[in-house]
Amino acid sequence: MRSSLSPQCGRARLALTGVLTGLLLTLTSPAAHPVSNPPVPRHGSAYMGMGVLAHDGRPVGADAGPPTRANQLEGVDVASYQGNVSWSTLWGEATKWAYTKATEGTSYTNPSFTQQYDGPYKVGMARGAYHFATPDTSSGSTQADYFLAHGGGWSKDAKTLPGVLDIEWNPYGDSCYGKSKSAMVDWVKDFLSRYKSRTGRDAVIYTATSWWTDCTGNYAGFGKTNPLWIARFASTVGTLPAGWSVYTMWQYTSSGKTVGDHDRFNGDQGRLQALATG
Question: Annotated active-site positions, please?
Answer without folding.
Answer: 77, 166, 168
